[in-house]
Amino acid sequence: TTHSFLYFYSATIFIIVHSILVLVYYFNKDMVKRVAVIGGGAAGLAVARRLLEFPKQFEVVVFEGQGNVGGTWNYTQDGGVHSSMYASLHTNLPKQVMSFPGFAFDNRESFGGTLSFPHHPCVLSYLEEFAAHFHLYKIVKLNTLVTGISKEESSNTWNVEWERKLHSKPQHDSMEEEHHPAKGSGEFDFVALCNGHYALPFCAPVGNLDRFKGEVLHSHDYRDASIFSGKVVVCFGGGQSGRDISQELCGVASKVILSHYSPNKINQPPLLETLPVKDIDPDDNQSIVFQDGTKEKADVLMFCTGYKFDVAVFDGFSTLADGRVIDNLYQHLFFIDDPTLAVVGVPIQVIPFPLIDIQARSLASIWGDPLIRHGNPDGNDDDDDDVTVSSSTSRFNATLPSKEEMRQWLVDLRMGIANHGEKLHHEHILGQKQWEYNDAIAALSRTHPLPSWRRAVYEESKRIKCNFPWHYKESHFEVDEHTGEWVSSEPTVRC
Hints:
globular; about 500 residues
């Protein structure tokens, strides 16, 4: 009969489909992809967290050269090391807006209590707690420095070489530290380079610099103001480090000059501001000459001119603009020639942790196997308060454009930079463009964009900073991440 035939037909189709799914599952269950995450700072931890949400797809190893996670937030009194922290540093963004989605930067004492701009050890504590909460220490090789990566064409995998720094005792239990040999290597399907961009100082060119009789240093090696007591100090560079350090020095130095392209950014004594440094006066080798022709006899010239990217682990990378741009990246993230390699956390002048989290989600979506993506039964996306999976099906169809399309994206990006009168070294500097970028990466990984409250709090923080340049870190914010409601209060002192 017709009904019997339809029943038999439906049952047969069901059995065939079920058999195919079973075969696909068993074929892929042993096809877990190995991922090497280079760096255990904020970026590396974020990537590890998102990949571990899919344990049937990814096996993750995090390589960290220091004895603790946290990256640049690991403060040391000695200069010439990875960290660019200085003793008095507080965050320049409210901690509430800095938090990773799904892990609040709340008011517990180790996170700075009710302070919205906590001292740097509080950020390290936040990252340590983040690593513990998401069980990341078990996959971290501390004191393990990656010395090189190369692509093995025969196996289409990455060979990662590392060496152990045996002199440093790990501060947390991690991957069988005592059993690791001094050197080693391994094969991985994907590599995420998460080694930050605050370790290689960039010094802008200054004529006759080698003839300067005073002290020359970079803000990377600055630790405290006391050694500059009674001196004349020129801070060259008007970014965040230039602002913070020059303001701090005003309390001990006899004179402090902030030299940058936008004089009057702070515009309040005792700090003086002038145009950028041009060269050293060859007549006395002590006077610094600025672009407007004025001079200042100084004891110290401190470069606060940013950093270069360290991509030396892979010979296939190239940099532009004196090391301030990584070439051949799609969306400041994927290596176009081989997107199984990514550099995480490249964008500058952004809210870093939430942006890094969206990038990490993108890696999980793009690198995962679409044959075994049936939503996220292994993960915990539902724990996120403000970034969730837009669809258990659509997210796992995420793919990158073709290499030709990705290269054209980069050409268009640089053409737009030039058309706006900006220079090439601005390529990774997003600023207000970060919101559009966040949305683009969220769309790429099929996740919802960041909620509007993050931008609103960020903009309010900028407004307060502009009006209270010496006291903005005394302002206070409160945010309910579940509802998106927030309030702020300005500093009580204005000067």
